[in-house]
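hey can u check if this looks right to u? its 381 residues, i copy pasted from the old doc so theres a chance i mangled smth
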Amino acid sequence: MNAKNLIQRLSCAVTGARDLEPLHEVKRVPVFMGCVHSPVSQDVVADMCWCISRSSGLIQLSSLIPLDILYPESHGSGGVGRLWDTHHKAFAKYLARLHPKSVLEIGGAHGILSREYKAHDQIPWTIIEPNPSPVEGCDAHYIEAFFDESFSFARPVDTVVHSHVFEHVYEPNDFMRNLAGYMEVGNHLVFSLPNLQRMLEKKYTNCLNFEHTVFLTEPYIEFLLTKYGFRLIDKEYFLEEHSVFYVAKRDPSVIPMKLSNDLYECNRQLYKDFIDYHSSLIGKLNKKVADTHRPVYLFGAHIFSQYLIVNGLSTGKIVSILDNDANKEGKRLYGTNLLVQSPKVLRGVSSPIVILKAGIYNAEVKEDILTNINVNATFLE
């Protein structure tokens, strides 16, 4: 993708400070983290350029992909798997503690949260989402749009909800300002987002990418909440490194907080450790694959595989990409020549090797394959 087509971020996405310095660059990264039927010749790639604010320590992408290119369709994230199912149920239960009378959900593409909430109460539920893909059982009202400063809604709403949306927002400062402008004093804001701090510490490749363009960890979230008149009421962790649940109340009397002075050094070192780890890992994986005569598969038709490949993982001996999402089967992982198959293809395969670097989902994937598909599978983790 030509640099002139990219959106340039010139100042810190949280504080607005114009003190960004280069941190790391990854060349020719696929801009879509999904699967397609189209030929490889139509794939778009761009350089992924990370920077860091000297004053806030916020890691952020300096060149952003236009939204219509980044999200040509929903890629299904958050809709498949036992762990995601557990998350949605837990977050619905968390929300139910507040007994909301009506909900506006921002970015609830599949509507799973609204469906799960029906186990607690039947309330008016509206979803504003640019790419609706409602699941069976979702009867929420959809508004096909982005939430921005121009949004208005005639129906009364006492609670605004978003789940795994905040980390996708290009301008979190503007997003919070728009929320403050839309919500009435006393209304609740309830949201879930990935625990990016733990994810980067654990070296998960789905932490920072073209969709997660800001290292939006707890200090920055709480800074933005107080900056725009939201009082933090509650915070709860869902598993050690999956998500953080928040409840905040619209309260203009809250005192804005300041960011710690040590975030720059801490975040810079954390990112360096992430890069060094993957440089070493990919070298080891390539050697193991080169030395084996057994069939090799790569799990994860998503950023998990794209990141490894674009950073040097050799694909010559990889049979296919494995993924549990049936909607991806038979398609090609964008940015690669590899087709997607169900892990069930491992049945009957003699001693297959599976490269498995799917973050927090590793244990779930490994257990399913060994228990239900092929007990003789070996995993490179």
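Residues 43 and 335 are 6 Å apart (CA to CA).
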